[in-house]
Q: What sequence folds into this?
């Protein structure tokens, strides 16, 4: 069988696949240049398996894969493949749930530390030569807070939320969550308090961190009314998707200084324009959508997809089927 892989893929995973597949590496995963639609249509014509991260497999591409048996997105949220259409054509759609769970969870904790300890501001203060004998006492200027004994409120307790919870507990934080689809036994085993109303979570947490998917139910779920319930000393973090929060409402809350601050990795429009209001706020820390940007994420999704492709090649049912 022939496998076309346009996603970044580990050498070890390619070697494992080579026992059963003729592996062809092209596109985004090789040179960070997506295949054009014409190139993709031509490349997929004679392959049994297609694995993608950036290239989009829509109906036209799927139809062009006359021999296609498996189509895979290395993403946890596989928006780049039309998996419903693939299933209608008898093609198995795979994805890589949890591939960036550790990366995003760790970034979330780092952002909480940044908000409370002003690490970047202190670093820039030194690099700019402002720490002098005549400067104000840095012990006072950069005095912050501790994570220990604070309440972390998680909106969603999926793969990422669970990892955030574990790390936060190691810091001595109290963790609570809102997730109407969660088995309460899972939360109980993890020592996490489940709140029944989202408003309660916002009102009682020292940090609110978003870790749910974008669905019709969650789109715009967090707006001014919820954000205004937060303590004036509390922080808001979103490393999930901006659509879950009404960005204009969050900007208003920060401009009115009704909460201590926010840290964001996701935005309504990416990249942000230089005149974006979030960039003008001293109480908002922003990073350019780097939640899953670790070398290990490639290792994770390569292993997840390869394990399933090897199962398929051996006649066994894959695990991570959409």
A:
């Amino acid at each position: 069988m022939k496998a076309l892989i346009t996603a970044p893929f580990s050498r070890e995973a390619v070697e494992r696949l080579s026992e059963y597949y003729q592996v062809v590496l092209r596109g985004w995963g090789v040179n960070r240049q997506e295949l054009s639609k014409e190139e993709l249509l031509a490349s997929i014509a004679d392959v049994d398996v297609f694995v993608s991260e950036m290239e989009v497999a829509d109906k036209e591409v799927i139809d062009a894969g006359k021999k296609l048996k498996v189509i895979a997105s290395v993403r946890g949220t596989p928006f780049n493949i039309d998996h419903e259409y693939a299933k209608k054509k008898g093609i198995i759609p795979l994805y890589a749930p949890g591939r960036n769970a550790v990366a995003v969870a760790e970034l979330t904790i780092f952002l909480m530390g940044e908000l409370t300890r002003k690490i970047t501001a202190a670093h820039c203060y030194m690099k700019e030569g402002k720490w002098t004998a005549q400067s104000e006492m840095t012990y006072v200027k950069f005095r912050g807070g501790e994570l220990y004994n604070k309440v972390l409120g998680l909106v969603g307790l999926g793969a990422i939320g669970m990892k955030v919870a574990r790390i936060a507990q190691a810091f001595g934080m109290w963790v609570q969550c809102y997730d109407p689809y969660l088995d309460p036994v899972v939360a109980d085993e993890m020592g996490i308090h489940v709140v029944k109303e989202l408003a309660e979570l916002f009102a009682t947490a020292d940090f609110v961190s978003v870790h749910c998917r974008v669905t019709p139910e969650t789109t715009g779920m967090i707006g001014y009314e919820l954000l205004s319930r937060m303590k004036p000393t509390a922080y808001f973090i979103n490393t999930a998707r901006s659509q879950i929060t009404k960005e204009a409402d969050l900007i208003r809350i920060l401009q009115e200084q009704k909460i201590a601050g926010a840290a964001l990795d996701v935005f309504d429009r990416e990249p942000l324009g230089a005149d974006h209001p979030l960039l003008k706020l001293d109480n908002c820390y922003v990073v350019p959508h780097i939640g899953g940007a670790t070398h290990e994420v490639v290792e994770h999704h390569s292993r997840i997809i390869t394990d399933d492709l090897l199962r398929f090649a051996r006649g066994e049912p894959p695990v991570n089927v959409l």
